[in-house]
Amino acid sequence: EEVHQQLEVLPEKWLNLKRNYVAVRQNVAPLQAQENAKIRQRLAEFDTIQAHFRERFKNEAPYAYDSPDAYRKLDRVNRDLIKQENELEK
């Protein structure tokens, strides 16, 4: 008896669930698009910062044989690199 009752009610519940899914999906889509745009913006900013870091690293050449303060430069580069890694993890 109970099984027959559920068999009558469940198709209607399933249809309601599918309707709710469509409504929720439509409501969430703009929020997903906003979040996607934010992530793309942050990624573009990080790429720019990384490109500047790379150029500065190549220009300063802390690994050069004749560099007078090589260890100090390497320490500074290491600190900057750790800072970038921490920013990436956010």
Please explain how this structure is put together.
This protein has 90 residues and is mainly α. Helices cover 88% and strands 0% of the residues. The protein is rod-shaped, with a radius of gyration of 28 Å.
Biggest beta sheet attributes: none
Shape: rod-shaped
N-to-C terminal Cα separation, in Å?
56 Å
Instruction: Report helical residue fraction.
Output: over 70%
Number of strands: 0
Tally of separate domains: 1
- Sequence of secondary-structure elements: HH
The averaged pLDDT comes out at 89
Low-confidence region ranges: none
Class computed from helices, strands and strand pairing: mainly alpha
How much of the residues is beta strand, in percent?
A: under 5%
Radius of gyration: 28 Å
Count of helical stretches = 2
Q: Mind sketching the topology for me?
A:
Blueprint lengths: L1 H59 L9 H20 L1
Helix pairs in contact: 1-2
Report a brief summary of the structure.
The chain has 2 helices and no strands.
Overview features:
mainly alpha, 90 residues, single chain
